[in-house]
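Cont'd.
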Amino acid sequence: MLSISQELADKIVAHARADHPDEACGVIAGRGGVPERFIPMENAERSPTFYRFDSMEQFRVWKEMDERDEEPVVIYHSHTATEAYPSRTDVSYASEPNAHYVLVSTKDDTEVEFRSYRILEGVITEEEVRFIP
Amino acid sequence: MAIEVRIPTILRNYTDGAKAVDAEGATLDELISNLESRHPGIKDRLVDQGSLRRFVNVYLNDEDVRFLGGLGTPLSDGDTVTVLPAVAGG
């Protein structure tokens, strides 16, 4: 299960809306599995169908997390024309075994789908999301 | 000549859980071969058909080796090499 503050969840959705129709992506860093620090990342691909963290930005952010004894608790990205379910490419490049992979879909103008998954060795497991007020 | 190699979570099963290991080599290519002799199986996760895998980022100190010389990048004693899987998807 992913427990996340409503405030952080709202920030993910706002980022996804702002970058629509391109995919938005980012990280929430934290300790002990608790998502705390919102880090929107640049989508180096600037694409409606693909995302990739900029390699130098990723290096700086991962180094900073290491220095602060944090880990990438949440890795999020948006789907802008399809549902919030991991695509085949999402599964093949999933490389943080301890992260919650959050997907939001902005295909609908008013409703937002917000879902979370574990992706381990090619297997997708959806998990419950609890929003903390 | 010792070079520190920082290992991402997903590859620590090759290093008995170690976050960083030492290896040797005058170039990144040599370093990875040396790493393979100490941690069998790891090379295949980094290199494919003679090039760095597309979705693996390797940094020499603070630079992405793609902007240096790829596998031919020369290394010096005391350098730090960091491996990070790219965060990507569709």
